[in-house]
């Protein structure tokens, strides 16, 4: 059995040491059967991939949001080892564009799709999945489709940590700045926030929810408009992604308000630009998510995995300097 993978690459894909790979290749008896199977699965996958066109697609909603290119970086680290080329397509948050891209990708013969979508109408996706022509792996956003392959992070726990932290600091008048309310991932984050609110026994009167489509400009306009109309009466903003937190920060600053002296602010994702503002946020393990999605798709293409994949990684609070204690 031949493969172009190096020992190091095989060890990374199989999650074993290089010396273990060497022992498997030399047919040593000093290897557990389960470990041997992991290495052989990687080797079989590489062998099967020789007969494929090595082309997959990555469909995502917004190239201006660094979160998605960082997912791609993780995917690329695995696809390079496995010899896959990735077609990337930006839907620009348009469902119509999303449908066109999906149809085009199917026509051009990609072997699999890693997909982050709006899922406004799931019927098209479900029809494609039902045909079983090519494998899909849904990344980040849960499509809420039975038996779908999914790699994501724990949105409920992540937003629970965000809400709990801001409430532990004494804030009870909080603006929750969400993305797209209809998405399951947003529903999960709101659920986590509500859990923290319930634990802190904070009245619904103190919480207002606004939705800015995960976009910086939309968040800016929402906060700016509230400030101009004199209806902004919050001590903290809890945003469902960093881009919306950036938009909120600029709107506050343009109206003479300081973060965190006047308003505390917390984001979600921990994209690199968060360091510029010293933004307190929730970190998603984007590169690991990308790697796991690529491995899952490769295993589906080569039929190494029959059962649906569901990988939910941890998200964690990153405390910086945009939140303050209320006395």
Outline of this structure?
This protein has 3 domains: about 5-50, no CATH class; about 55-155 and about 285-315, Rossmann fold, CATH 3.40.50; about 155-285, Rossmann fold (3-Layer(aba) Sandwich), CATH 3.40.50.2300.
Account of the 3D structure:
The protein is built from 12 helices and 12 strands. It folds into 3 domains: 7-49, no CATH class; 55-153 and 285-315, 3-Layer(aba) Sandwich (Rossmann fold); 155-283, 3-Layer(aba) Sandwich (Rossmann fold). The mean pLDDT is 89. By secondary structure, it is an alpha/beta fold. Helices cover 45% and strands 15% of the residues. It has a 6-stranded parallel beta sheet, with helices on both faces. It is elongated, with a radius of gyration of 22 Å.
List keywords for this structure.
327 residues; 12 helices; 12 strands; single chain; Rossmann fold; alpha/beta
Topology:
Layout: H1 7-14, H2 18-25, H3 33-49, E1 55-60, H4 67-82, E2 85-90, H5 95-107, E3 113-115, H6 123-131, E4 136-139, E5 150-153, H7 155-168, E6 174-178, H8 184-199, E7 207-211, H9 216-229, E8 236-239, H10 242-254, E9 264-266, H11 274-277, E10 281-283, H12 286-301, E11 310-313, E12 316-318
Parallel strand pairs: 1-2, 1-3, 3-4, 4-5, 5-11, 6-7, 6-8, 8-9
Antiparallel strand pairs: 10-12
Protein name: HTH lacI-type domain-containing protein
InterPro entries: HTH_LacI, LacI/GalR-like_sensor, Lambda_DNA-bd_dom_sf, Peripla_BP_I
Keywords: DNA-binding, Transcription, Transcription regulation
